[in-house]
Structures are given as structure tokens and as C-alpha cells.
Amino acid sequence: MQQDHPHTELPYKRSKKKPLIGGKRAYNHALSRFRVRVEHKIAQIKPFQLLAKRLRYPKMTYAAKFALKFALVAGIVNIASGF
Predict the structure, then answer these.
(1) How far apart are the two ends of the chain, measured CA to CA in Å?
(2) Up-side HSE of residue 66: CA atoms within 13 Å toward CB?
(3) I need a surface site. Which of 1, 48, 54, 69 has the fewest CB within 10 A?
(4) Do residues 50 and 73 lie in contact, with contact meaning Cβ atoms separated by under 8 Å?
């Protein structure tokens, strides 16, 4: 995964015989706190059905129309959240 997406943050894994030490455990905790916030924002976007419905546009205009709609919905969610 790191080869395909070099900026992806992955948590450290523990083994049966080696538990995680303080620094790695704190990193995993901070990463999980960030991921929870992202997942909650995605959950707030889902009621708009933007990600669930299939858009039937030509391929050239598909990305532009989706990006515009997603930006509008994300702006609504951000305003409702107080950002």
C-alpha cells in the first residue's frame, strides 16, 4: 500500500510476543483520533446521497460535476459544523 500511496499513514501492528512501546502506541492513538474525525465527516456527507447515487454524465464532464457537487455538500457540512 505504501508503494501505491506514499502519503498513506498506517498504524503500527503489535505481534503476540512484542507489544507496542510508548511512542508507537501514542502514534496509533493520535492516528485513530484523526481517522474518527474524518469518518464522522464522511457520515455527515452520506445523507446527501452524493456518494451513493450513480452520476450519468459523459466521462469528460463527470469529474468536474462531481467535484463541484462534492465541494458544495462539503461546504454545507462545514458550515453546519461551525467551520
Answers:
(1) 32
(2) 15
(3) 54
(4) yes
